[in-house]
Structure formats: C-alpha cells, structure tokens
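Input set for joint prediction.
Command: fold jointly, output tokens.
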Amino acid sequence: MFGFIAARLVTAVFILLGIVVLNFILIHAAPGDPAAVMAGEAGAADEKFLADLRTQFGLDQPFTVQLWNYVSGVIQLDLGFSYRQQMPVAQLIWDRLPATLLLTSTAFVISIVIGVIAGVLAAQMQGTWWDTVISTVALLFYATPLFWVALMASLVFSVFLGWLPGFGYETIGANYTGLARVLDIGTHLILPASTLGLFFTAIYMRMTRASMLEVSRLDFVKTARAKGLRSSVIQRRHILRNALLPVITLAGLQAGQIVGGAVLTETVFAWPGIGRLMFEAINQRDYNVILGVFFISAAMVLLFNLITDLLYGVVDPRIRLTS
Amino acid sequence: MKTFRLLTTVAALALASAVAAQDTPKSGGTLNAVIQPEPPSLMLGLVQNGPTQMVAGQIYESLLRYDKDLNPMPSLAKEWTKSEDGITYTFTLQDGVLWHDGTPFTSADVLFSVDVFLRETHARLRASLEQVASIETPDDKTVVFTLKQPFGPFLGIFEAGTMPMIPKHIYEGTDFANNPANNTPIGTGPFKFEEWQRGSYIHLVKNDDYYMAGKPYLDEIYYQVIPDAASRAVAFETGKIDLLPGGSVENFDVPRLTAMDNVCSTDAGWEFFGPHSWMWLNMHEGPMMDKNLRKAVMHGLDREFARDALWNGTGKVAKGPVSSVTRFFETDTPDITFDPEKAKEFLAASVYNGETLRLLPLPYGETWQRWAEATRQNLADIGITVEIVATDVAGWNQKVADWDFDMAFTYLYQYGDPALGVSRTYVSTNIAKGSPWNNVSGYVNEEVDTLFADAAIQANDADRQSLYTQAQNIIVDDVPVAWMLELAFPTIYRCDLMNPVSTAIGVNDGMRDAWLDR
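tokens >
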C-alpha cells in the first residue's frame, strides 16, 4: 500500500512539472500579452509605456528564461505575482478558494446524493413510468446549457418570485456575523449550487442505474436471493456496493475539478470563485494567474485520482493495490 | 374672491416648499452601483482604464472639472489665469484640502504628481506634457505652468483621469508600480477607500474632512462586481442596484429597464470623452489602399439602421473624424451618407475584384457582434464579400496592432479637443506597428499633418477652428477610416438618486454632488 502511494506521488510530481511546462508554452502561444491588454484598457499607450510594462512583467526576457524562472519558482512553491491585480497569485487563489470550495462541494454533494438515490430508484423501477420520469428530468438538466438554466433560475426565483437572491456571495453592506451570516451565505448559495449540482446529477443517475442493473444480473446476486436474503439487504449490501465502483471513479474525476471552480455558474451568479478568476485572467492574458490556477487544479486532479484508487480497495476488498 | 386668492397663495407656497424640499440635497444613504469589469487597481496614477476611473474618480481629484460644454470649473484649483501670449498658466489651490490620511495638500504635491509621477506612468498625459517647459511653485497655494509655446487644449488636461493628484509624501522616492499603498489609495476626493473584496465589491465611505462643507451627501458607495450582463440587468430589476453606469447592460435590455417605475436615464456625462466609433481601413496593403473602395464602403454603410436597431436610437451618425461634442467640430463636411447606388459606382471604379475582406468586430459583447453582422450584410448588398474574424480582447489588440485585418471596429475617446483625442488617429508621425491606438490605418497626408500641428499651438480659438475645419474637410474626403456613430451610453438609475451626472465625465466624478431622496 505504502509503496503504491509513494510510487504514485513520485509520478505525480513529474506529471505536474510536465503540465506546468505544457501550460506555459500553450498560454504564451495565444495571441496578445498582458501589457497590450492593460494598455488597451487605458485606451492609449506609447512605446515607453508598453516597454515599461513588458520589463515589469519580465516579458522582455527570452522565452526559455521566462520558462525557467517560472518553473524554478513553482518548484519552490512560488506561483508568481499578478501584475494586473498587484497581488501574489497564491494570495489571489487563496482568497477565492473558500467561495469556490463552498459552491463546488455543495454542488458535488447535491449531485451525488440526488444522482445515486435517483439512479437506485430508477433501477429498482426499471421499465416503469417512474423510471422514465426520473431519467427524462435528469437528462433535461444535463442537456440544457448551464448558463441558460442559471439565468432562468435567477429570473424565476429572484425576479418573479423574489424568494432567493439572484447574485453574489452574501448581502453586501449587511455586515452580518455569526449564524446570521451563515444563513445569508446559505441563502445565496442555493441557486448556484442547485444549478451546478443538477447538471451533474444526471451523470450519476445514469451511471448508478446502469451499474445497478448490470450487477443485479450477476450470479452472486442470484445466490443471495436463493439464500433467502431480504430484497433490501441484497440491494444495499450486494448490488449497490458493487455498483458504486464506476460512480466512485466519476466522483473522483469531478472532485478533482472542485478547486478549478465553475466558470459559467460563477459568472452568471457573480460568485467570487476561482473559475471566474481564471476566465478573467485568460481574457487579460494574466499569465501567472492562469498558470497558478491550472497548477492547483492539476495537483488536485492527481490527488483525487490517488484517493479514488485507494477507495476502490475499501469498497471492493478484492482489489489490491501494488506499486 | 379673497378666500380663493388665499387658497391659491397657500397652494402655491406649499408647492414651492415641496419643490424646494426636493431640490435641497439630503445627506446620508448608501448607493449601490455596478462596476464592470472589475478594475485591476484603484491607483489612478498608474491605471486609467474605464472601471478604475469610475471608482477612483471619487477618491482622487485634479485641479479642474468640466461642465457639459467642456468649460473648466474649479476643483482642487479655485481659480486660474492664462497669460495673454498663452504661455503661462497660474493656478491657485483651494484652502483646507487634506489627503485622506490627514496630510495637507499643497503645490508640492501638484509638482510631484505632474512632473515626476505622471510623467513616468501616464502615457496619454506624457504626450501633452511635452509642451510644458517648466512647473514652478512660488508658494504652497500657487502653481505656475510655463509652456514652450501656446498649446490650445492645455486647460483641457486637468481632469481627474488625465491628471490625478498623487500624494508626494507617500510616493516620493519609491517604486511607484510596486508601492504597497497602491492597494489602499489615498486621495483628496469626496470618498475614501474602505474595502475591496476582490470578485465581489469595492466599498467607499464619505470623507468627513472634505474641503467642501456639507459634501459629499452620500454616506457610502458599494461598487458591485457582477460579471454577466444579463445578471446585472436582473440585479437592477430586483432593486439590489441603484446605478448602472453607461455600457453596464446590453443595449437590447435598455428599453425594458428604463420603462420600469422610478427609473431614469440620461445620455449626458460623456461629453469629455466623446466616444467615437469607426472601422479602421487597412491602407498599408491590399485593396483598401484604393480611395474608391474606401468611399464605396463608407457609402454602403447604413448607419441609421445600426443606430436605431442596435443602439436603441441613441447616439448620432458620425459626420467625420471629430465628434459633435468635441471642440472645433465642423458641420459642413463632404457627404458620406448611406447611398448604395453611389457606393456601387465607387466600387466599380475601384481595384476591388471580389476578394474576401477580413472584418474584426470589437470583442465587447453582443451589440458589437451584431454590428459586424449588419456591416457584412450592408457590404454584401453592394457587392463586397466580408468574412468576420472572431477574437478575444487580447487577440483583437494584437491583430489591430500588427495591421492584420482589412477592416476593424474600434472606438476611442476624444477628450474634448482634436489635439488630445483626434489627431493621433490621422497624423503620419503616429504610424507605428505594435499599437492599436495610433494611426492604425496608415493614412499619410502631409497637409493634414501640418494643419493638426499648427492648430494645436494656436493661442486663439478662431484660428484653431479655421485650421481644424480644413483638416476635417480633407480627411472626410480621403476616408482613411469608415466613421460609424458618436456612441451614447445611457446611465440608468433610480429616480430618487439625484444629480448623479453633473459634469462632462458623468459618474466618474459625479458622486461628489449626488444624493438620495429617500
């Protein structure tokens, strides 16, 4: 087990370095640079202005020197400085992390809980009217563009009904503290978390349903039935537990993206998370911020892949992990 | 009859007092405004983009403000004089002005701001400062600018976004770009910086030590960051936002929002900027070098349709290089109106032989994309094939700066005077690859160069008008760019927000005089 983990961690370091280098090359291949964008926003620039900015950003250095400076910084866990926002990248990401984790984790839980329960129900009622309804509703949320669902949710629940706030992380200027603040943030969280969560629910629902049906046809389930076990025990202990393996794989993939944020949801609901930070950084060619977010996201994906592999062994003891 | 007179008198008095009460500003209240995109910094001496000016214009001030006819008004300077030869300008500063940290504001701050800080950091002002021979401060309250020669637009460069005053005691001898104070800006303005939750809001609070007694009226302002245009409209509809600065929502949402109860709007407050839109026509190479093709394009554009269908009927069809709100605008220039038949005649006489021309829309949202589509249709109708090339902002900057286009939408500010915001687009000395804000088309006309150069250094407005009139006539006839619209960006606000726009830069410095009638 420990050998397996150590080997995976060593591999992860090399993969991360590869990702850093690849991202660096890709982002510098895109047209435009941060100096031109900043000068553009000011509506005027002369050669001195652009040259000063490029010197400040280190963009006047040869490409290989820029790459080496960045990679050696990352090795020392220094993600660089956002000249546009005049802050260290690590601090920018750290400031946005709580909002993003809150949104994506809540959506993650919503999608898994509702998705798995709906999948189990649909499998148990295969071919019935309920199965059709559950599958159709779930697919509807999956197939409809996320930004449209978000806007409609905002219109219905915020503009027409006035039940929920349509944007933001909390009520600005209210200066709530303690439980009142928790409730305020919770109220603001409902629409974005539900919108994002329902989008992923369909995937979990379909995966659970298909997996449940497949497992339920296997011999050991017939044996369990022949032994006279109760149906609920068979469903929970034998079918669901085995059917969860692909669901865990999927959850591992989604969990790895939790830190990356959700660009569309965060944009429509003005949620101050990392997804928006990254999207705006791409538009502004704020290289260090883009690379910093990519780095953290990639590290999280690798970490959660490792956790997923470890969970396999817990859920299905037949799986043994070796290096 | 006496009773009737008494009643009418009482009624008149009641009405008068009601009107007076409405006109008497009330102190207090919180204003919620939208800011988009989120500014990169609030240090106005370092960053002068639109969102920064909108927020930092309440924190920083300059020596003058401008009314809607672009006449200078007192700000940090209470009075000023100009010598007869137009060489020497003397400013007398207000009494009792303090920086937000309590340090007195003096002429030494003006000298440091202009001659040291902004000369290094402010590209647009640097060009104007080339005209300044010396700046002297004979005492704490007096600043004397001596020019190398008369410079007509000199009194027009003292607006907060162009020449913000920077605290010498904080910045002198430091690395300006990396001074930690940039994150907690200190100005002399009516509002002080309180907090910036990046991604959420910027919070300003009333400056209790402001030198104008009683002002500002508002207690605090929250500038809320809402990145999606539709969500900004929803925020206004649900009452969370009181003020949508011009350009905050898509044009197609404007009629719906302005039709709501207790909602007012105004096109005023952009006179200083005079946002002027056009299409660059690439004259460096290719068919656009042919004047006949450029004229065909110009006459082929249905700009009235664009104004009415895409801009809700706001703005004006541009008559040439100078906006009608900018000084020295000439009304009687050659005809460039929509005339498809005339366009086809020019096209037939041109070198164009059916090749596809690349059009770069401005990547600033849906309206600009639709405008590019309408333009492609207009030009297809007269026989020109156009391909729309999609880019993001950074890509647009690079393609325009590298002259990698045939036609490219843009709009620029004019800053009230042709010498400040118009000549840069047309003089041949301003042709240089690498910048999208110079003479990108590559227009070369020595006569125009001379006219612009001479007009800038005349001390007399009549002489300037004569030279600018000649320049405008020549340029319109040459069609180096295809002028589109004088843009209007309506400011939308609750009607109980009084006086949000009182100067030529609108909400950028208007919160000093704004108040809430609640």
